[in-house]
Design goal:
TIM Barrel; 2 domains; homodimer; Lyase, Ornithine Decarboxylase, Chain A, domain 1
């Protein structure tokens, strides 16, 4: 049974349905375990210690984070952190990383000899690295054939290499999910063989994202790092990855305008975020009104068609991309409780 | 002379060039005064008491805000506030509005008889209303011909009406700025005549937005409410409204990835915001490299083409839409000082 829309809090506010959240966490853990994969969820999606603790209790081996600031926060819940990002570690960040290393095991992403050199002084504090491979998303990462060069430089400078990783971001496509998972596993296998060929052990092959993870298998990968699955969002709904029943996070909004062809809600881009993928049918969806579409979004207005209701009506909006919604929130309303977004603003 | 890029703060961080900021504030004030218009800047752009005080010191008659929460914050700097939004005022918001009314004069937007009825109990606390007119943006607001119906309902329920307003949002178009300003002034004049026709005085005709304001004149309008002009952004740059020299706010970012065809910066959508208008040439610009384009943006990565630099290089990124960037910031770095974003999260 779905919870009712909370009426005692001012709108817009971010609501999390705990029952759906826990179901999502358990389902992903079971799916990963069933195919022999370790699950290291990306905490950037929720930025919440409470959610992280639920993921770890369900069986996650550790957490993925995007920034040193997130590592600082999540070291409070987890002693096994992977910063899946090609960090450029200046003096300030090195000092902060050393402090995190005194509290937790930390592996960071690396995709160049330059950053290996820069990270080398942190080897004595226990920092380890994982080589990022570009498996087709063409954002960061080296081609798989160059992974050995980076790994060799790391090993020579005293940095322990724990493996290779990739983000198959091209899986964010209605028709490309399975193919991106194939790319991911093929390129990581090439990179692993290259490392082993130059005498660098490669125990970890880490991939995965919410849209590709159902195609990931333990024959190649050892770990997956989905993030969005905890909450779901309109992107996953429209990609066919999540059903509306699997959406745990919504923004509760009020109808503030009603006109012959549209209504206007008080949840705009300052609360929902403004991501809109090319395949998206609008700027978000209404959980309880699947035919409705948000056809325009400004800072404090969502213009909705295909739905009509009197001013004052409350609705649950499913944001397009939930990571950016969580990034805008101070807290989640969870039944009668409020959970802090502990890593709010932790983006440096 | 432009300031140098701040090197002692971790990236990404939000930098404000005070000299450019003050020049923008003075220029807009002079332009408005020269054509007989009162300037009531929209504080949602900066959410900063410090910036608001500079605007008021330069001659602004008051401030525009978008939410009750922003009114609560800006009552600390200003006793004359206009909430340019069709508020739906439930009990919680009514209590908060009453508290603001004890500190400042408050006018709120209204575009329906239903909301007039709901606001009526606040008349005794001094709340006044201004009727919102749809001048072509088709978001909120009534057609000009219906403004009298709303105004009459307000007057009959004891709410003082101080005039009419519109947001000509269709001015956000490279070729449509002047035409939107024509629409704005024509429709507000129709609405004013309608109010006067039913015996409701209409002293205020309020319009304006940064891209349309240069076409606004005091023959029809009495006040304008631009917001973005204080900081500038890539939208205004690409609309031809601001030059790069007029951009006061940038996000300082570091090159974290360098590949044959692109570099990657550590400023993503969680710091810049993700707005991208149809006319935008990318997801933001680099202030000092006008040929560069941000061709892809994810949460912590900006992929840049047309620019090359070694890892570790710092650059100044001009966000597409600065209101959403400010909404993501805790503070602005202003030379050696830090200014709080006082209304951070004040979106309810």
């Amino acid at each position: 049974m779905r919870e009712h829309v909370e009426v005692s809090r001012p709108t817009p506010h971010v609501h999390v349905d705990r029952e759906v959240l826990e179901r999502n966490i358990d389902a992903m853990q079971q799916a990963a375990s069933a195919v022999g994969l370790a699950l290291r969820p990306h905490a950037k999606t929720h930025k919440s210690l409470e959610v992280a603790r639920l993921q770890l209790a369900a069986g996650a081996v550790g957490l993925t984070v995007a920034t040193v600031a997130e590592a600082e926060v999540f070291a409070g819940a987890c002693e096994d952190l992977f910063v899946a990002y090609p960090l450029w570690v200046d003096d300030e960040r090195a000092t902060r990383l050393r402090r995190v290393l005194s509290r937790a095991s930390v592996v960071v992403g690396v995709d160049s000899v330059e950053s290996v050199r820069q990270l080398a002084p942190l080897a004595s504090s226990g920092l380890r690295v994982r080589v990022e491979v570009d498996s087709g998303h063409h954002r960061s990462g080296v081609p798989a054939s160059d992974a050995a060069t980076v790994a060799t430089a790391a090993a020579e400078s005293g940095l322990a290499v724990d493996g290779v990783f990739t983000f198959p971001g091209h899986a964010y496509s209605p028709d490309g999910r399975a193919a991106a998972a194939v790319d991911e596993q093929r390129e990581l296998a090439v990179a692993r063989d290259a490392l082993v060929g130059v005498g660098v052990a490669c125990p970890v092959l880490s991939g995965g994202s919410t849209p590709s993870v159902e195609f990931s298998r333990g024959e190649v990968l050892t770990e997956v790092r989905p993030g969005v699955y905890v909450f779901g969002d309109a992107q996953q709904w429209e990609l066919g990855v999540a059903t509306p029943e699997q959406v745990a996070l919504t923004v509760v909004a009020t109808v503030v305008g009603r006109y012959p062809d549209r209504v206007v809600l008080d949840a705009g881009s300052k609360v929902l975020g403004a991501d809109r993928a090319s395949y998206a049918t609008g700027h978000g969806r209404l959980l309880d009104h699947p035919d409705a579409r948000i056809t325009a979004l400004s800072e404090h207005h969502a213009t909705v068609t295909g739905f009509d209701a009197p001013r004052g009506t409350r609705v649950r909006v499913v944001p397009n991309h939930v990571c950016t919604t969580a990034n805008l929130a101070d807290a989640y309303v969870v039944g009668d409780a409020t959970w802090r977004v502990d890593a709010r603003g932790a983006n440096t």
